[in-house]
TrEMBL record:
Transmembrane regions: 23-42, 62-83, 149-168, 174-197
SUPFAM superfamilies attached to this UniProt entry: ABC transporter transmembrane region, P-loop containing nucleoside triphosphate hydrolases
Start and end residues of each ABC transporter domain: 369-606
Keywords attached to this entry: ATP-binding, Cell membrane, Hydrolase, Membrane, Nucleotide-binding, Transmembrane, Transmembrane helix, Transport
Molecular function GO terms recorded: ATP binding; ATP hydrolysis activity; ATPase-coupled lipid transmembrane transporter activity
GO cellular component, one term: plasma membrane
Species in which this protein is naturally found: Acetatifactor muris
Protein name: Multidrug export ATP-binding/permease protein
Enzyme class: hydrolase
Length: 623
């Protein structure tokens, strides 16, 4: 019973969500349902009356009744057809609502929450199961089937009860006695109770099996999903597969996963057939007992031949409705089971409360950000990535954040941009904890190019303008500053050219070209602070130094922060923060740090040979 309540609690909540999005969808389905049920029973009554009138020889009256039968079926048929035509667009809308709600929730959550593996798994699980078993539209569809079945059961039960109470014309013998009102009601009640008990036992028996198979099948679908999305559908993976001869290995794994999936689907179908067959057996016993009752009533003269067809039809509707109810409820149970994960995702709270204070608008662009005893540890990690970091950053000029790989530089920048919140301590902007600011306003202070930057399969101008209003002059200015203007002009449609081929027949850009477009996006944002977080890590040190030098010219007049594990980016910076093992170990200008002969100087001298021009034997490469 608890499982039954849980299923319908989920189902009713989803129905309320659908209704809140479009108030016409559910009423239209209910109207179609009422017309369908009404057509069944109006036809039953008119058909039975027509048979009796024909047997009585009243042919003229029969003709009018036949015309009424055809007319009512025409009216109901046309009405149902028009409503179902309206359904086509609405069902597509319902199907899309699921994905819209999923994305809206994803975008509303803070980055730190969305980065959790369990959150990503909830999203993937919800999408995959929706594609496999039907989404919101199927919830509404099965509830309509259930409601239609309930209406059918109530109406047909009323007719059968009326049949049972009909007096017998011939009470002699066992058939006559059993056809009497009281015995008939008792017999029908026993048959109905037996059917309900049998159906419940079938439901209980197969519900556990279906749940076990469904849960086990999810793991296999995860494996298949990985192969389809991250191996077969990824051109970069295709290069590695060909270079290292991995085709046979990948296909071997694919066949293993396919066999597992096929086995689970086979078990699922087999259990589904067994459940259906068991319900058919239960339904068959009820049908036979019901027809026996109707036959006794007809034989004893309690009902006419026409009434026999009406009651037989009603009993047939009763049995079919019970079977539909059980089947639809089983499908609804399956859908609501995975929809509970979807709703659990929608109910998730972000890890951090959102602030509301607007950021002060300063014409001079001068702000001060302070890290006060800040430590940060990723969930599930063995120790903190940053340890008791204290520093003040005046948003003006050029700054570098350097250190070895894994020293905590990127985490420092993500905390600075408000993507993470400190595990300990606080970060302030002009003396106010940044958590109290409106996060969108605070993030407008920063234009960032991360090492793992992303361009989307959209037109060039959308990739560059991103979420800000499109201004053509500003777009080309940013492209020119990023040294991407000539590249975009050579494209067939200029800034309207689509990137990549996921959605359109777009252009494939090289890594260097993509990097320039990502830089243009950061410049187009026109933020007071522009940050380069090791986007050139794949380049050799000399090429990286050239990129940073060019970028230094691009951001002239703005605050710029460079993050790198190489020292070549630091020579033109007035302020350098040096990280090691999650702590700030040194800070100063390039000349000051070299003169100090500490950790920074050691890194510089270790890497200096990569920055020398041929024939240059000097050891100090400061500008």
């Amino acid at each position: 019973m608890r499982n039954f309540i849980s299923i319908h609690k989920t189902g009713f909540r989803l129905l309320r969500m659908i209704h809140s999005e479009d108030s016409i969808i559910i009423p239209l389905h209910l109207l179609e349902l009422c017309f369908s049920v009404a057509q069944i029973y109006v036809s039953l009554f008119l058909t039975s009356a027509l048979i009796d009138i024909l047997l009585a020889g009243a042919y003229e009256q029969a003709a009018w009744l036949a015309m009424a039968l055809l007319g009512t079926n025409l009216v109901f048929g046309v009405s149902i057809h028009l409503i179902r035509r309206r359904f086509k667009g609405l069902r597509t809308k319902i199907w899309l609502l699921f994905y819209v709600w999923l994305r809206e929730k994803s975008f509303s959550m803070d980055y730190e929450t969305m980065e959790k593996a369990e959150v990503s798994e909830k999203i993937l699980f919800s999408e995959r199961t929706s594609d496999m078993y039907g989404g919101l539209g199927m919830v509404l569809y099965h509830y309509c089937d259930i409601l239609k079945a309930v209406l059918n059961v109530l109406l047909s039960s009323g007719l059968v009860l009326y049949l049972c109470l009909a007096g017998s014309g011939d009470l002699s013998g066992i058939p006559g006695i059993l056809a009497g009102p009281v015995p008939s009601v008792i017999l029908f009640a026993v048959v109905l109770g037996g059917m309900a008990y049998g159906s419940w036992k079938v439901f209980r028996r197969f519900a556990v099996k279906q749940t076990e198979i469904f849960q086990a099948h999810t793991g296999v679908e995860n494996q298949l999903s990985y192969l389809m999305n991250h191996v077969f559908g990824d051109p970069k993976a295709g290069k590695m597969i060909r270079l290292y001869g991995m085709e046979e290995m990948i296909l071997k794994n694919a066949h293993v996963f396919y066999r597992k999936s096929r086995d689970y689907f086979g078990r699922m179908c087999r259990v589904g057939r067994e459940e259906s067959d068991a319900n058919k057996v239960v339904n068959s016993f009820f049908t036979m007992a019901s027809y026996l009752l109707v036959t006794m009533k007809a034989v004893t003269g309690a009902i006419t031949v026409g009434a026999f067809t009406r009651y037989a039809g009603a009993l047939n509707q009763f049995g079919g409705a019970c079977f539909t109810f059980i089947t639809a409820h089983g499908e609804l149970r399956k859908i609501c089971t995975y929809m509970q994960e979807f709703l659990a995702f929608l109910d998730m709270d972000s890890l951090h409360a959102k602030g509301t204070i607007p950021v002060e608008k300063r014409s001079d662009g001068e702000y001060e950000i302070a890290f006060e005893h800040v430590s940060f540890q990723y969930p599930g990690s063995s120790g903190p990535v940053l340890r008791d970091v204290n520093c003040r950053i005046r948003i003006k000029g050029k700054m570098a954040v350097v250190g070895r790989n894994g020293a905590g530089k990127s985490t420092f920048i993500k905390l600075l941009c408000g993507l993470y919140e400190p595990t300990e301590g606080q970060i302030t902007l002009n003396g106010v904890d940044i958590r109290k600011y409106d996060e969108e306003e605070y993030r407008r202070l920063f234009g960032v190019v991360f090492q793992d930057f992303t361009l989307f399969s959209l037109p060039v101008w959308e990739n560059v303008a991103a979420g800000f209003p499109y201004q053509e002059d500003k777009l080309w200015e940013a492209l020119e500053q990023a040294d991407a203007g000539e590249t975009v002009r050579k494209m067939e449609k200029g800034a309207d050219t689509w990137l990549y081929k996921d959605l359109e027949d777009g252009v494939e850009v090289s890594g260097g070209e993509a990097q320039k477009l990502a830089l243009a996006r950061a410049l187009y944002k026109d933020a007071p602070v522009v940050i380069l977080d090791e986007p050139t890590a794949a380049l050799d040190p000399k090429a990286e130094a050239e990129v940073y030098a060019r970028f230094n010219q691009m951001v002239e007049g703005r605050t710029s922060i460079y993050i790198s594990h190489r020292m070549s980016s630091c020579r033109f910076c007035e302020d350098i923060i040096v990280f090691d093992a999650g702590r700030i170990v040194e800070r100063g200008s390039h000349g000051e740090l070299i003169a100090a002969g500490g950790y920074y100087a050691g890194l510089w001298n270790a890497q200096a040979k990569y920055y020398r021009e041929p024939g240059d034997s000097s050891r100090d490469f400061s500008l």
